[in-house]
Protein 1
Amino acid sequence: MRRVVEETRTDMQPAVAARRRDRFGRREAVVVDDRPGAGAAVAAGAGNGLLMLARVIRFVAGVLATIIIAAILFRVFDANQGNGIVNWFTDTARSLAGPFDGMFTIKNPKTEIAVNWGIAAAVYLIVGGFIAGLIARAGLGAAERGVR
């Protein structure tokens, strides 16, 4: 039978707390990390995951706003709607900015699209940034709680 003995221990070595039997009946050592701040790595990992989620949300909001802005430019500068790329941007922006269509009624249709869809792009950026900020603050809080 093998015995685990720790004669010298530095702060970098975890302590062996107890022994237990595995599912085959063999005895094994159970290692407990009792170093100061041992939970910091777990909390920092959770915090990093939330920070990554916040970055992804900001990125997606930016991409959606970019699609809407590109469609506005295509409409204002009379791009060929028969072109596949222009058509894709316009259709996608129309679905993304759907709730904002007709918010303001302006005589010039290009200006109306620019204003209404521009508001939609701004809302995507603002709301996406707000949600990402909340998630990032939660991630930073989790990391700070683990460091203490």
Protein 2
Amino acid sequence: MQHEHFHIGMRTIKSVISAYLCFVVDYLRGGVGMPFYGAIAALITIQKDMPSSFKTGMNRMIATLNGSIFAAVYLFIEQNFLYLENPLIRYAILSLLMIPVIYFSLLIKQPASTFLSCVVFFSVTINHADGPLEFIITRLTDTGIGVIIALFVNWSLFKVQDLYNSLKAR
């Protein structure tokens, strides 16, 4: 039986560093955020190269903003004008509201953000309906922190890797 050599690649290293830094930033902020969302954004943002990372990070931010806005509008309407006693009716409405969430993603030419927009929409409307505005602001902030950290780590380690490769080539 042949054992394959275990290799930890740069993308794994960048992901570990980025996730850790999201937790450190939350700690330095006094633990007021939700570093889980920052770490997820960082993991999603880390890609094989900077252009791909930037594009993925922007898709993540657009998706979070899109899903959050639709969720906030729906929850405002629900809490002020709708009186839904049957949860199945509420779930039917939420499911149908994926149509405008998806349509808007396509309208702004961001099809890659469609899935995550729906995830954020459901996350806010189903899990955080009691305090949605605070959750939305915190989630947007932590997602932005995760994207920025991932882009910085990605850029920094690309520079270190380029330096290493140039020294190795000499």
Protein 3
Amino acid sequence: MHPSLTRCWSKKGQRKEIPSYDNHEKRVVFGSVNPLTGEHITSFWETINQMGFIGHLNELKNRFPGKNIIICLDNCRSHFTKKVQKFLEQNKNFFFLFVPPYSPDLNPIERLWQVMKKAVCHNAFFRSLEELENAIKCFFSAITFDEVKLTCAI
């Protein structure tokens, strides 16, 4: 996750300036949502890789012990690794449902990401990645389950 620039209103003849850094650091956020209840979980990692994904799966496993968990996923390489397959073999209550390529609208979490990015990241400057991460955590702490259900409705 990184701040993004997008169109916005400004006075005629004046251009809004958003400070930015000269690097491309970002924070990876893994997230899961139950579109029926609005319950959601996010976890932060340095890079998008299999270890971060498995870490997120373990958070789900600990939060919902013994429950069947169906996860709607895109076709990211980290979802198909041998370590992820081994996790699935050891945790028979996890089921992956892969959406077709270029179909983010079929994945409920993508709608929540869109709302979060607009509320937190668009046209915003964060002095550090920690500040950005805290802003994202605040967003997810403040959003109600009802708002999540409306956003992620199937």
Protein 4
Amino acid sequence: MLQAPLLAAGLAVSLATAVLAEEAPVAPGTVAFLGIHFLDTSAEGAYYGERPEERVRIGLLEDEVRTRFATEGFTFLDLSPIAEEFDRVVNPANCYGCDVRMARKLGADYVLVGEVQKVSNLILSMNLILRETGEGRMVRGQSVEFRSNSDESWLRGIRYILKNNIFKGGRTP
């Protein structure tokens, strides 16, 4: 009889701890930001190749990420010590752990990678993943789908991920 209430209490404490841990801000540290990769699987891309404005948008997203991480107290590391290895990687967001291994070589606390996939000129998806380098465990990460291939929609997507996932429970909006 006494076991059921104790089990229930233990479960409640475990769930509360999990919820609190999820809400806790990510501790600032050093980050190996391997950028945001653009993957165009659209018919338009197959016929005409990458549009120049989409390359510019990747730069906008990367600037937005750098600015927000700096605001939150994170420090980005210079990637030049791993440049040769990094240049051989097609997509650091999908490289079977090479992102974590390269970040460890830099002595980073975290590795950060992202990807934008263009399904069509109307349908796109974006993800951003933050991993700790000790075990390679994902600390935070999210994928969002969005409509409209514009600067505004891309920035809205990355800001949503940063606000509602990466820095959920953080001190800045």
